């Protein structure tokens, strides 16, 4: 045996120095660290430091020769010992950065902000659902929502197909809450649904907005009892969303088969079907475990793939509403019960021209004074000109045009309310 210790190793590398500028240290870390503190930290780590004009020049020890060879390495050593948790949280500088939210993404955020501001809570549900959900929704085989896409390797039978509507997920959330004595719900979800295009093609993905309301929509106050969620509650939420986007829309009779007949409607935007809203059919509500509710929940669904492109084309313009006052008049239109109120509003708007700034129905009357099978729609008209104050004669001329158009397009009659 050879006596003693034999050490075979490479010779120690020559020491080298790395400069550390205080200004650079502060700019990278976002916090002022005094040169004295930096020097003390590095010396405790074995770096021999020497200050020059407020900056530091550190001699790297031989055991850190291979991993500390630039200024950023010294800054990292100072930062970790000083404490990364002590550094301020800031956004990175964007002097040369590119990119921002697209118009569509901003509109999506506007929808979410509007709904949260209206008191709705956002939920996120699984995109995988049970095939039994289609049966419980009573969807016919020819309905595109019934053509679900099976998952190749599902986690369970309850998550073995892709959803074609957000309704099953919202109803499951409602059932979970109702079972725990929380029937007053205002929920919304923005998520993708998937429609099968056959075994040899990729599915079609669409972005939908789903809303569910149940129980008390507005709590009771000392002046009135609680207002239960119903068709008109959902319509109010719909109005808030679509008006925030600035799109023109209308409701027509209809809706999917899982809604209550007569308490549902389809949403039309830019002459395309964009969604629906209505009260859930009681039998469907019972199948989803919501039979104990006093009345079935109200659901609403919008195809954002239809709504958002229309909203992206909307240009917001501000106009003077003070210089020239509006002329407001109320009229009553008597039409057959089968004539949709939206048809009357559209006819009035087309006949009156651009100076009719708004028109809406504020009352509906059925009774002996209008005859059987007839109804009277009370409409409030607001006329305003951008360059002058309209006279009574000018408004009367437009009202005559409205009367003629109502008779021609709907077979109705017009009489003044006051």
User: What structural class should be given to the helix and strand makeup?
Assistant: alpha+beta
Total number of domains: 3
Strand order of the largest sheet: 4-8-9-15-14-13-12
Average pLDDT across residues?
Answer: 88
Give the tally of β-strands: 19
CATH topology of the largest domain: BirA Bifunctional Protein, domain 2
Supply the CATH class of the largest domain: Alpha Beta
- CATH homology group of the largest domain: Bira Bifunctional Protein, Domain 2
Residues in β-strands, percent: 25-35%
Measured distance between first and last alpha carbons: 122 Å
What's the alpha carbon Rg, rounded to whole Å? 34 Å
Number of helices: 11
CATH architectural type of the largest domain: 2-Layer Sandwich
User: Low-confidence spans: pLDDT under 50, at least 5 residues?
Assistant: none
Written account of the structure:
- This protein has 418 residues and is of the alpha+beta class.
- Helix 4 (103-117) packs across helix 9 (304-312) and helix 10 crosses helix 11 (392-410).
- The chain has three domains: 17-86, Phenylalanyl-tRNA Synthetase, Chain B, domain 1 (2-Layer Sandwich), CATH 3.30.56.10; 104-312, BirA Bifunctional Protein, domain 2, CATH 3.30.930; 327-416, Alpha-Beta Plaits (2-Layer Sandwich), CATH 3.30.70.
- The mean pLDDT is 88.
- The chain is elongated, with a radius of gyration of 34 Å.
- It contains eleven helices and 19 strands.
- The chain has helices spanning 22-29, 35-44, 71-82, 103-117, 132-136, 167-178, 231-245, 282-287, 304-312, 341-352, 392-410; strands at residues 17-20, 48-52, 55-59, 121-122, 128-129, 149-150, 161-162, 185-195, 204-214, 216-218, 227-228, 249-253, 259-269, 272-280, 298-303, 327-336, 356-365, 374-383, 413-416.
- The N and C termini lie far apart (122 Å).
- Helix content is 29%, strand content 27%.
- The protein has a seven-stranded mixed beta sheet, sandwiched between helices. Strands 17-18-16-19 form a four-stranded antiparallel beta sheet, with helices on one face.
């Amino acid at each position: 045996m050879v006596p003693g210790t034999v050490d075979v190793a490479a010779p120690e590398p020559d020491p080298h120095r790395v400069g550390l500028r205080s200004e650079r240290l502060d700019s990278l870390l976002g916090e002022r660290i005094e040169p004295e503190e930096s020097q003390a930290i590095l010396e405790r780590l074995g770096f021999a430091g020497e200050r020059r004009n407020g900056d530091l020049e550190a001699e790297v020890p031989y055991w850190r020769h291979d991993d500390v060879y630039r200024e950023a390495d010294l800054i990292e050593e100072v930062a970790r010992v000083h404490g990364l948790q002590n550094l301020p949280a800031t956004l990175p500088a964007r002097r040369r950065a590119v990119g921002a939210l697209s118009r569509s993404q901003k509109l999506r955020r506007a929808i979410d902000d509007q709904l949260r501001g209206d008191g709705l809570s956002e939920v996120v549900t699984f995109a995988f659902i049970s095939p039994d959900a289609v049966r419980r929704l009573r969807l016919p085989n020819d309905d595109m929502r019934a053509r679900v896409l099976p998952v190749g390797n599902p986690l369970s039978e309850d998550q073995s197909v892709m959803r074609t509507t957000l309704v099953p997920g919202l109803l499951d959330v409602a059932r979970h809450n109702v079972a725990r004595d929380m029937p007053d719900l205002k929920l919304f979800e923005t998520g993708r649904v998937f429609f099968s295009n056959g075994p040899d093609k990729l599915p079609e993905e669409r972005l939908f907005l789903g809303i569910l309301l149940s129980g008390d929509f507005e709590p009771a106050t000392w002046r009135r009892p609680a207002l239960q969620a119903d068709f008109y509650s959902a319509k109010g939420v719909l109005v808030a969303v679509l008006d925030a986007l600035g799109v023109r829309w209308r409701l027509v009779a209809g809706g999917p088969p899982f809604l209550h007949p007569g308490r549902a409607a389809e949403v039309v935007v830019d002459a395309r079907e964009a969604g629906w809203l209505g009260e859930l059919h009681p039998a469907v509500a019972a199948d989803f475990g919501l039979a104990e509710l006093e009345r079935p929940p109200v659901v609403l669904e919008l195809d954002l793939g239809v709504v958002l492109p229309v909203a992206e084309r909307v240009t917001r313009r501000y106009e003077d509403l003070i210089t020239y006052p509006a002329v407001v008049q109320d009229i009553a239109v008597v039409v057959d019960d089968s004539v949709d109120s939206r048809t009357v509003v559209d006819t009035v708007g087309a006949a009156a021209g651009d100076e009719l700034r708004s028109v809406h129905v504020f009352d509906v009357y059925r009774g002996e004074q209008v005859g059987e099978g007839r109804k009277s729609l009370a409409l409030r008209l607001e006329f305003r000109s951008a360059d002058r104050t309209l006279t009574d004669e000018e408004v009367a001329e437009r009202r005559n045009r409205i009367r003629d158009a109502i008779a021609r397009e709907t077979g109705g009659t017009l009489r003044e309310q006051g």
